[in-house]
Design a protein that fits this description.
This protein is of the alpha/beta class. It contains 16 helices and 14 strands. Helices cover 48% and strands 13% of the residues.
Length: 499
């Protein structure tokens, strides 16, 4: 519940416990074992932010959070809590929150996509866990694509761009440096692994506009819910998506510092997945973004089973804490409980470590930042109840919300415009066509040369025959002429003698 720049989210023996609005962007953690009430706590926090006009984004791992879109109702449990806290049930206003559903795969909500170009070479290299040499080659491919006006939109663009660069390596060595074919092969394999997890659906157009997340309806912050039941099975793509989202928001949002309320709040359920098998470079990037993004008025709340699931650099930035019960069945569990207790500002009224083990469902140890930004003394409390529905909605309800959404149709149909892949293939076809035409021309010229040579040979042969005939004719003509002359002379002589 929201009132006077304070977010009422829990109740202790001493009374209501609030998150101070201007401290809500200092990040937070909701931790606890399975079944202890983490999801309900997340829903209460998100619902309270929505009442204050703050939009939220949350990854819904099991579909449970979709109920925040529907109106809740009075129950015996709520009546009992209200009696315990002195609240009048007749004043309760049960209502759902304005909701937009999203899905990277485009199955349960509006698709969320970005382009390879917008992801950028450095972030993509971190996500693919490339080494220094491979990162250099990927950066060169991006640079060449930009210089030659070859837009990198989807994964086929990047794959063909890398192939194009590798085949024309000598052409680019002088201006761009050495391009290792082995590095190109390694990058291609990493891209293939990402594509198999659904990267082909995530990279494309229309590219998502993060300002569509920063919306209110009727004065209430919109709850942007990502269907993540399928996405959570693909940790590489899940990390890729969340890193892009945080980075894009950080890059585009102006510096505003601490406001009376955050501009937006992120809830990352199953937060351990962000850091499982994650390279140090990527972990460092996440830590950097989380540390800096609060200056943009963005709060980030991690939800996980144990505080130890988060790197210490991240955990140290989570000033607002809600710790549900933990179990200690093994020495490792016991160490996690002890570590969790040590993260709180001690309350002399109870043993924090012992309380963590004895908390009931819906109970938690709570410590929020005070007005000066210092952690308050930890208190044992009970989390408020949501005013919206607890649990998943039906597929029919989800479809109706998607169809009536203000952004319905904006991202639903993928667009495959002419980009690097199409241009490279077109250039390749033109080169192949030109090569074929050159080959055909050379063959025609060769055939023409052969034909001319044959004709010259025939003409020469014919000329030779003509010359021979002329020579014989000349000899015969000379002989005949001589014979005729001789005969005439002899005849003349004979006639003279007779006279």
């Amino acid at each position: 519940m929201y009132k006077d720049q304070q977010l009422y989210v829990a109740h202790s023996a001493e009374g209501p416990i609030h998150i101070i609005g201007k401290m809500a962007n200092r990040h937070g953690l909701i931790a606890g074992a399975t079944g202890t009430g983490k999801t309900v706590t997340l829903q209460v926090l998100a619902e309270t932010f929505s009442q204050a006009g703050v939009p939220c984004f949350m990854a819904d791992m099991k579909g449970d959070l979709s109920g925040i879109s529907q109106t809740g109702g009075l129950s015996k449990f709520i009546e009992k809590r209200c009696a315990e806290w002195g609240m009048d049930t007749t004043t309760l206003q049960f209502e759902g929150c304005p909701v937009r559903f999203y899905d990277v795969y485009g199955e349960q909500g509006h698709p969320m996509r970005t382009t390879i170009e917008k992801m950028g070479a450095m972030l993509l290299a971190r996500l693919l866990d490339l080494n220094e040499t491979q990162t250099g080659v990927l950066t060169l491919a991006f640079r060449i694509a930009k210089d030659e006006q070859l837009p990198l939109v989807d994964m086929k663009d990047l794959r063909l761009m890398l192939d194009y660069v590798a085949k024309n390596a000598k052409k680019y060595e002088t201006n761009y440096g050495n391009i290792s074919s082995a590095s190109v092969g390694a990058i291609q394999r990493a891209l293939l692994a990402l594509a198999e997890q659904g990267g082909d659906k995530f990279f494309g157009e229309p590219s998502f506009d993060i300002f569509d997340l920063l919306q209110t309806e009727g004065g209430r912050g919109v709850m942007n819910i990502l269907a993540a039941d399928k996405l959570m099975l693909q940790p590489k793509l899940y990390s890729t998506f969340l890193m892009w989202l945080l980075t894009d928001i950080y890059d585009k949002m102006p510096e505003i510092g601490d406001m009376e309320l955050p501009k937006m709040v992120f809830f990352f359920d199953e937060a351990h997945m962000l850091f499982k098998d994650t390279s140090k470079a990527l972990t460092d990037k996440i830590e950097q973004i989380v540390r800096l993004i609060r200056s943009k008025g963005i709060g980030v709340y991690f939800i996980s089973q144990s505080p130890s699931d988060l790197p210490e650099t991240i955990l140290g930035q989570c000033g607002n804490r809600v710790q549900h019960a933990l179990r200690a069945f093994t020495p490792k569990d016991q160490a996690a409980v002890k570590a969790a207790a040590q993260t709180f500002r001690e309350n002399p009224a109870f043993d924090t470590e012992k309380e963590i083990l004895e908390l009931g469902t819906g109970e938690a140890l709570v410590s929020f930042l005070d007005e000066k930004g210092a952690p308050s003394v930890v208190q044992k409390a009970k989390i408020l109840f949501p005013l919206s529905q607890i649990g998943a909605i039906t597929s029919e309800q989800r479809s109706k919300i998607n169809e009536t959404s203000r952004i319905s149709g904006k991202y639903d149909t993928a667009v495959d415009r002419e980009s690097a892949a199409e241009k490279i293939l077109k250039q390749r076809e033109e080169e192949e066509k030109a090569a074929l035409e050159t080959k055909e021309r050379m063959e025609r010229e060769k055939e023409e040369a052969r034909r001319q040579k044959e004709e010259e040979r025939k003409e020469k042969k014919s000329s030779k025959k003509s010359s021979k005939k002329g020579f014989l004719a000349g000899i015969i003509g000379t002989a005949v002429t001589y014979f005729v002359k001789t005969a005439v002379t002899q005849l003349a002589r004979n006639l003279t003698k007779k006279k």
